[in-house]
Amino acid sequence: MTVNEIVFEITSCLAQQNALIEELIKTGQKQVDGLKADIFHEIVDSINNQEKLGKQLALLEKQRLGLVRQLGQVIGKRDLKIKEIAKLASPDQRQQLDELTENIIMNQQKLQEINNLAALLLKQSLNYTQKVLQCLQPREQKTYDSTGQLEQAAKINVINWSI
Q1: CA 7 and chain centroid, separation
Q2: pTM over 0.70
Q3: Half-sphere exposure (Cβ direction) of 141: Cα atoms closer than 13 Å
Q4: How far is 79 from 84, CA to CA, in rounded Å?
């Protein structure tokens, strides 16, 4: 393959990766919406879709790295950065590479924000669930009596179960 062909393949691979990242953003937003509305199947579907998209993204990244290594062998240089690859490209490809790079960085930041929000919502939901469980079934604190035997501490019920 020639330098231009390899650069074209790298550009194509980056475009596919950007499309997958955009799809991950949409899926992440669906997950956040599911977490906000407490729609379990939407959360599970989003997680499964994220896993599938993540695997596809990893395969594309492996392919892109292989192309970058191949380009490095052709020009006799190792560890090429995207800016160095852009210098080897035609003006149209260079502009496309620059736009893709900007879009990928911007989309990655959006995806990170969505993932952080989803993690915070999950943590909030788990904390709420734990509080409810503590109200329903408080943990019994065990103490030792003077003989060294465990003795149950007085149980404080928040809910009156005698009704």
Answers
A1: 28
A2: yes
A3: 7
A4: 10
